[in-house]
């Protein structure tokens, strides 16, 4: 390892090891010590089609009584739709967590 300055990344499978690692890094003069939890999450991806609502004609563009005699919004059979992909996580998450610890050793 470098003797003067640099970055370190450590993977630890349990929080007790993270605590010991952070204590040792502090004793060795490391700063900006940050730990993130890493957990694999599997998601189900599926395509869905959503019907866009038909709110009827724009009332600000209509004037006069003839505008009121148009067909109601439900009479138009072709509603626009939107196709998109969505995800949902699995209900049960088999697996194990881990932790990444990052630290900086200042240059001396």
Automatic annotation (TrEMBL):
It is found in: Nucleus. Its EC number is 2.1.1.220. The keyword Nucleus applies. It comes from the Eukaryota. This is tRNA (adenine(58)-N(1))-methyltransferase. It catalyses: an adenosine in mRNA + S-adenosyl-L-methionine = an N(1)-methyladenosine in mRNA + S-adenosyl-L-homocysteine + H(+). Residues 52-108 are annotated as: Disordered. InterPro entries: SAM-dependent_MTases_sf, TRM61_C, tRNA_MeTrfase_Gcd14. Keywords: Methyltransferase, Nucleus, S-adenosyl-L-methionine, Transferase, tRNA processing. It comes from Xenotaenia resolanae. Pfam families: GCD14. Residues 1-105 form the tRNA (adenine(58)-N(1))-methyltransferase catalytic subunit TRM61 C-terminal domain. Transmembrane segments: none annotated.
